[in-house]
Amino acid sequence: MPPGGLVGTVRPGSGYNARLIDQASHTTMEAEQLNSIENRIADVGERAGELRRYL
Hints:
Layout: H1 16-54
């Protein structure tokens, strides 16, 4: 891993800023994935409650 923990491809002429953009894109994707997982867990919890009431 490069120094500073930044991962990304450096395009000619972009340097430091390109790595920050790549890192921000990765962080956004990670946040979207976490939100999706959180929504699924909430849905499963809701369904479990409905099943308990039914049974």
